[in-house]
Amino acid sequence: MKVGDIKSNLLDLARCNSCGVRKISLFSGLTDEDFSHIHQSIDEIKFPAGASLFRQGDDGRHIFTVRQGMVKLSRLRQNGDQRIMRILRPGDVGGLEVIVASHYEYDAIALDPVFVCRIPVEVIQQLDCESPRLHKKLLERWHETLIEADEWMAELTSGTARARMARLLLKMRNPAQPELSTLFSRDDIGSMLCMTMETASRTINAFQREGKIASLDAGGRFYQIDSGALQAEIVSSD
Question: What's the confidence (pLDDT) of residue 32?
Fold first, then answer.
């Protein structure tokens, strides 16, 4: 290994050790020894809101760990519509499918300014051979991803508009501050919940009038929520 490679790897290790999402990221189970096997650079990249991390059908060369911001994963349907499948938040991983496939299965678009670690697939393949911990972690993360995707589809596309919106608000809670929830554009909400943008806006406005949520910004993205009232809304619709 070249001296430059060693320095690069040490920088990667230092950045990973100081990362705020290290404990919940894909690499949370790795040791310093595991990282010493990495020969390729892990890049830190910032994307502005609306930027594409990768597109459906693109050659899959990297996976992405989200450190800040939110990313929507959407898929083009046969009728030409884009359907949002789920949302990535800090600690989540996008593009895992390219570990076993040649291309990405989704569009990944930044919903706000996003900071990610871009990890070459070769790094995963290499560590997969040399680190049983990573192999187990990959299987666990893939399983979690499949479960979450199923939950998004089952919970956010069935029931009344009010129940679907209540489930979305609860799913988008801040883990550190569960009384706070972050949303995105009404158009994206409508796509995710299988409702029109107008219905999404009316439902959010109704929840605000009823005191179930309170907007914390002029853009209508950040809300203080009454989790009990939202849960009751879901139960009453069942």
Answer: 66
pLDDT tens digit sequence for 88-135: 988 888 998 888 888 999 999 999 999 998 988 887 777 667 766 666
Q: What domain range is 136 assigned to?
A: 3-155
Average pLDDT for runs of 10 along the chain of length 238: 38 54 57 62 89 95 91 82 85 86 92 91 75 69 72 82 95 90 92 92 96 93 96 87
CATH classification at residue 182? 1.10.10.10
User: Do 188 and 200 reside in the same domain of the chain?
Assistant: yes
Is residue 91 within 8 Å of 24, Cβ to Cβ?
yes
Whether residues 140 and 192 share a domain: the answer is no
Asked if residue 168 and residue 127 are part of one domain, the reply reads no
Task: Judge whether 30 and 133 are in contact, CB under 8 Å.
Answer: yes
The pair of three-digit structure tokens given for residue 235, joined into one six-digit string: 């139960």
Is the pTM higher than 0.90? The answer reads no
Q: How many folded domains does the chain comprise?
A: 2
- Same domain for 91 and 132: yes
Burial of 179 (0-12, 13-18, 19+ CB in 10 A): exposed
| Residues contacting 230, CB < 8 A, separation 6+ | 166, 169, 170, 207, 212, 213
pLDDT tens digits for range 213-227? 999 998 889 999 999
Residues 128 and 221 reside in one and the same domain: no
